[in-house]
Design a protein that fits this description.
single chain, alpha/beta, Hypothetical Protein Mth938, Chain: A, 5-stranded mixed beta sheet, 3 helices, 20% helix, globular
Length: 122
């Protein structure tokens, strides 16, 4: 599924997503990652929703986004509130959704100039 035209001047744009692969600015990624408009953190530690920890969200909190989009894979799931506490302590909003929905939403918010982060479980 293709999402956007190729315009890399805005930063990192998700061009396509399918189970097991995300294409960002012409490069394919096959492991979970954290994506911000000007930064990609590859090989994010959790490889599934069930392995998420509070420390994973502390890592994201250090990046200081205004909003985190959590892509939970093919199924929409909600993390335990205690895991999200590092983000809540800093007033960082969290939206949980499927990874496909998080990819689409990230592109929209990034194009609006928002300080958005997407933590994508692939």
């Amino acid at each position: 599924m293709k999402f956007t035209q190729d315009d890399q001047s805005q930063g990192y744009v998700i061009h396509a997503y399918e189970n097991g692969r995300i294409a960002i600015n012409g490069k394919d990624y096959h492991d979970s990652l954290i994506l911000l408009p000007r930064q990609i953190i590859e090989h994010w530690r959790p490889d599934s929703f069930d392995t998420l920890t509070r420390e994973d969200f502390s890592e994201i909190a250090e990046l200081a986004p205004e909003l985190l989009l959590l892509g939970t894979g093919a199924t929409h799931r909600f993390p335990q509130p205690s895991l999200l506490q590092p983000l809540a302590d800093l007033g960082i909003g969290v939206e949980s959704m499927t990874t496909a929905a998080a990819c689409r939403t990230y592109n929209i918010l990034m194009s609006e100039g928002r300080r958005v982060a997407a933590a994508l479980l692939i």
